[in-house]
Description:
Layout: H1 2-8, H2 11-20, E1 25-26, H3 27-31, H4 38-50, E2 54-59, E3 62-67, H5 69-83
Antiparallel strand pairs: 1-3, 2-3
Helix pairs in contact: 1-4
Amino acid sequence: MNDTFKALSDPTRRKILDLLKDGDMTAGEIHQHFNMSKPSISQHLKILKGAGLVHDIKKGQYVYYSLNTTVLQELISWVYDITGSEKKI
């Protein structure tokens, strides 16, 4: 879970996740939404992938990135559990 929090701590990576909620994208398509180098975007994608927040799949000559909602669901479940949402004060 540490990798997940590290990945989510950066606003650029959060924006990438926001872009991917609308569908799969290549690194080039993602890059068009930012004012930074392609290698920088690739590094952000590497961190997101390492945290399990995105999947990648090669289709032809392109690599498509997609959102992995399973990790996010686990994180939400954990937050729900530690907040004791079912406990009454």
